[in-house]
C-alpha cells in the first residue's frame, strides 16, 4: 500500500483490487462490530508545511498529525489559512496556478507533496467536501457513480451496489431511493450536501476533508450532517474546517486553532475549549475576537 | 398651496434630469424598433409582391431548379427556380459549421482549460483580429490561395462550393470559439474542483463534466456561426463561382441565396419581376435568420432549465 502512490501498477487493476479489498474489510468489520482503531495511529501528517499564494505566505510552518477514526476540527478566524491548509492535504492547491507548497505531507509515510506522486490516486484516498454543495448537473445516481466509473468499475450491478451503499452511508438513501435518476439539482441544500458526501464516499477514501460542510445549511440539515459525521468516523478519518465553535466542540475529538497562517494550538477538543494553554486560543474560543 | 420641500416632486432640477434620461433611452429603443419594423415590413411587402402582384407560383419559385430570369415568354420563361441557391446556402452553411464547430470548441477548451494563461493571452487577440477582418479580405485571400489550390489538387475550376465552405469555415471560427469560451468559463469552478477532488484527471473532468455542462453553449456557438455563414455574401460570391445550376458536387461552381442577390441587384429595375424575385430571396434570408435567433433562444432556455 505504501508504494501504491509513487509506483502504482496500471490503474484499473489497482482500483479493482482496492474495491475487493475494501469489501473484504467491510465484511470483516461487520463481523467484528467495528473496533475502534488503535490509539495513536496517524492517518495523515504534515511537517513544516508552508503554502504561498504568489507573495502571500498563507500557511506558516505547520506540523500536525491527524489520527485514524477521529474527527479533527480546524478552527480560526476568517483568512487564518485553515481552508488553505485543508486543501493542501489532497493537493487541491495544485489547481491554483500561483500556489506554491513546501514541506512534507505524509500519508502512510509517503510524502504525497512530491511532484512525482499520482495526485489522482491521492485524491481518491483523500476525499473532499466543500462549503457550498456542488453536485454535478447529472442524476443522483450518476453523481455517485461518476468517480467509480472512471476509476474502473464498469458493471452495472457493481455500480448499483456502490451507489446504494454510498447513499446509505451518507444517510440519504431512504430519501432518494425512488428518484435516483432525477436531477441532483432538484434536491434541497442539505440533501445536496449529503449527496456530495456520498459521492466522495463512493471512491472509498480513507480520509475525508470537509470545508465548513454545514455553514450554508439550516439547523435541521446541520444536525443531520453532524450525526452523519459521527457515524462516518467509525470508518474514516475526518478533518473538518468550521467557523462554528459549538459544532467543533460537539463533534470533534481534537481541535487545531489557526491564526494568521500559523498553528497556535493543537490538543484534545476538551482541552482547547476548557483549558487552552495559549491566550489567543482562549480569546478566540470564548468569542473575544474573530 | 404651500410648497413643502419634500413635495417639490418633479419640478426640481433632478426631476427634470430624470425625465430627460428616461426620454433619451426611450428614444433609442424607439429608433431600433422602428428600424427593425421597417425592414420587416419592406422586405415582406416587396418579397411577397412576386407572388401576389407578379403571380409567380410559390412552389415553382421554391422548388424550381431553373433560374432563367431573361427567358422570353415565347420561349416558356422567365423561370425563377431558386432551389439550387437554397441548396447552395444550406450546403456551405452546414459544412462550414461542421469544420468550424469542432475546431472552435477545441480551441476554446485549450484556451480555458489547457493553457488558460498564455493560451488565452495569445488566442484572444488572434480571435479579435479574425473577427475584425473585412469579408472582402477573406474573399480575396480565398480567391488567391484556396481557389488555385483546389484547382491544382482537387480538380475543376477551383471556384465552387468547397472554396466557399473553406472561406466561411475560417470566417465563422472566431464566432464559434469566443462563444464556446464564454460557455466554458461559465461552468462554476467548484464543479470542476468537485471532479478533481474525486480523483478525476483533467481530461476526465473536461470530457465528463465540462463538455456536458457547456453543451448548450456549444450549440449556441455553432448556431451563431451558421447564422453568420448563411448570411455572408461577399466573400462567398468571390470564390463560389456563381453557377446557376443545381450543384452535383462540392467542386462545382454554385450560388447561394446571398450571392444571387448581390450578383443581380445591380442589373434589375426596381419594381420589375426580376427585382421582386430578389426581394423574395431576401425574405427567405430574413426568415432563416429569424429561425436561427429563435433556435438560439430556445437552446439557451433549455440550457438554463437543465442546469437548474
UniProtKB/TrEMBL annotation, chain B:
Residues 86-296 form the ABC transmembrane type-1 domain. Keywords: Cell membrane, Membrane, Phosphate transport, Transmembrane, Transmembrane helix, Transport. It is a multi-pass membrane protein. Its main location: membrane. InterPro entries: MetI-like, MetI-like_sf, Phosphate_PstC, Phosphate_Transport_Permease. GO terms for molecular function: phosphate transmembrane transporter activity. The keyword Transport applies. It is found in: Cell membrane. GO terms for cellular component: plasma membrane. Belongs to the binding-protein-dependent transport system permease family. CysTW subfamily. This is Phosphate transport system permease protein.
Amino acid at each position: 500500500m505504501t508504494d501504491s502512490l509513487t509506483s502504482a501498477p496500471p490503474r484499473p487493476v489497482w482500483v479493482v483490487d482496492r474495491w475487493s479489498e475494501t469489501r473484504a474489510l467491510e465484511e470483516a468489520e461487520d463481523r467484528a462490530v467495528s473496533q475502534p482503531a488503535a490509539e495513536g495511529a496517524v492517518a495523515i501528517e504534515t511537517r513544516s508545511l508552508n503554502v504561498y499564494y504568489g507573495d502571500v505566505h498563507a500557511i506558516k510552518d505547520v506540523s500536525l498529525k491527524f489520527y485514524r477514526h477521529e474527527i479533527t476540527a480546524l478552527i480560526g478566524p476568517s483568512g487564518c489559512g485553515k481552508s488553505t491548509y485543508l486543501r493542501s492535504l489532497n493537493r487541491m492547491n495544485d489547481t491554483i496556478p500561483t500556489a506554491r507548497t513546501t514541506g512534507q505531507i505524509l500519508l502512510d509515510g509517503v510524502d504525497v507533496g512530491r511532484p512525482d506522486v499520482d495526485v489522482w490516486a491521492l485524491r481518491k484516498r483523500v476525499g473532499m467536501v466543500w462549503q457550498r454543495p456542488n453536485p454535478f448537473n447529472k442524476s443522483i445516481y450518476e453523481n455517485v457513480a461518476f468517480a467509480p466509473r472512471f476509476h474502473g468499475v464498469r458493471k452495472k450491478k457493481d455500480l448499483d451496489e456502490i451507489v446504494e451503499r454510498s447513499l446509505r452511508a451518507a444517510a440519504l438513501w431512504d430519501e432518494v431511493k425512488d428518484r435516483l435518476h432525477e436531477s441532483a439539482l432538484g434536491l434541497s441544500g442539505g440533501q445536496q450536501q449529503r449527496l456530495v458526501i456520498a459521492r466522495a464516499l463512493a471512491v472509498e477514501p480513507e480520509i475525508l476533508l470537509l470545508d465548513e460542510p454545514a455553514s450554508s445549511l439550516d439547523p435541521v440539515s446541520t444536525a443531520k450532517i453532524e450525526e452523519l459525521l459521527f457515524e462516518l468516523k467509525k470508518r474514516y478519518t475526518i478533518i473538518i474546517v468550521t467557523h462554528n465553535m459549538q459544532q467543533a466542540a460537539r463533534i470533534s475529538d481534537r481541535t487545531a486553532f489557526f491564526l494568521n497562517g500559523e498553528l497556535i494550538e493543537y490538543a484534545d477538543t476538551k482541552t482547547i475549549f476548557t483549558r487552552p494553554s495559549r491566550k489567543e486560543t482562549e480569546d478566540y474560543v470564548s468569542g473575544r475576537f474573530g | 398651496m404651500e410648497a413643502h420641500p419634500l413635495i417639490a416632486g418633479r419640478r426640481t432640477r433632478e426631476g427634470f434630469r430624470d425625465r430627460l434620461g428616461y426620454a433619451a433611452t426611450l428614444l433609442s429603443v424607439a429608433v431600433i424598433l422602428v428600424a427593425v419594423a421597417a425592414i420587416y415590413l419592406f422586405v415582406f411587402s416587396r418579397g411577397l409582391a412576386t407572388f401576389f402582384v407578379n403571380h409567380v407560383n410559390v412552389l415553382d419559385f421554391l422548388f424550381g431548379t431553373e433560374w432563367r430570369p431573361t427567358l422570353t415568354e415565347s420561349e416558356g420563361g422567365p423561370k425563377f427556380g431558386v432551389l439550387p441557391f437554397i441548396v447552395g446556402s444550406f450546403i456551405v452553411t452546414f459544412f462550414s459549421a461542421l469544420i468550424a464547430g469542432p475546431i472552435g470548441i477545441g480551441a476554446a477548451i485549450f484556451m480555458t482549460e489547457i493553457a488558460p494563461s498564455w493560451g488565452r493571452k495569445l488566442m484572444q487577440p488572434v480571435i479579435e483580429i479574425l473577427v475584425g477582418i473585412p469579408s472582402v479580405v477573406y474573399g480575396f485571400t480565398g480567391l488567391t490561395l484556396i481557389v488555385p489550390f483546389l484547382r491544382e489538387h482537387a480538380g475543376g475550376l477551383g471556384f465552387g462550393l468547397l472554396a466557399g465552405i473553406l472561406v466561411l469555415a475560417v470566417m465563422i471560427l472566431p464566432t464559434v470559439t469566443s462563444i464556446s469560451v464564454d460557455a466554458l468559463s461559465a461552468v462554476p469552478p467548484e464543479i470542476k474542483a468537485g471532479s478533481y477532488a474525486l480523483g478525476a484527471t483533467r481530461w476526465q473532468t473536461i470530457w465528463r463534466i465540462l463538455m456536458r455542462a457547456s453543451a448548450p453553449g456549444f450549440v449556441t456557438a455553432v448556431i451563431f456561426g451558421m447564422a453568420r455563414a448563411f448570411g455572408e455574401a461577399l466573400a462567398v460570391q468571390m470564390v463560389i463561382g456563381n453557377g446557376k445550376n443545381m450543384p452535383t458536387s462540392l467542386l462545382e461552381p454554385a450560388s447561394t441565396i446571398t450571392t444571387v442577390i448581390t450578383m443581380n441587384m445591380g442589373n434589375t429595375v426596381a419594381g420589375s419581376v426580376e427585382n421582386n424575385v430578389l426581394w423574395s430571396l431576401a425574405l427567405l434570408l430574413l426568415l432563416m435568420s429569424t429561425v436561427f435567433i429563435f433556435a438560439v433562444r430556445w437552446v439557451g432556455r433549455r440550457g438554463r432549465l437543465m442546469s437548474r
